Amino acid sequence: MINSLSQKLNMKVNGYQIILSQELNETELNSHNFKKVGFFGRRAIKPERNEIVFWSKNCELTYLKEDFNAVILPNLDAKFGASIMYGTSSYLWYKQNNLSKFVFQIIQNKMAAQKHIEELEQKIVASIGKSYSTDEAFTIWEVGTQRLLLEYPKNEHGYIHLAMTD
Prior knowledge:
Number of domains: 1
Number of strands: 12
Number of helices: 4
């Protein structure tokens, strides 16, 4: 039986399985197009001093069952028009060499972010049940010491946060 929220969600970025508390493996991360966040990136996202952060740009997120309908891909094709385009990015925070936080962003398109977050929420409710908290901006699930937070776009970006609560 799967008792970890991160395992139940079965999220993968570029094929890399997101499991909170998983040990840092830089070689594995590099093979899935993650790069260590550098000096300027660290200033922008403000991790704690003891955190190591990895980042992937315009990445693919699969979740729950790996069917065609459980995926978020960037749309970078300009031939359909700039209003349809959007990017994605993903951040992995490691504390004491263990994954403590994951953030996935749908960026530069409020409509796409809203659509993807709504679809994800519906599939999560069908798979693991209703959230314990919902308002216009956030939907939150907690299982044990893990929390999933879906953040609906206030501007052009939508976010998926998965983190340890302790």
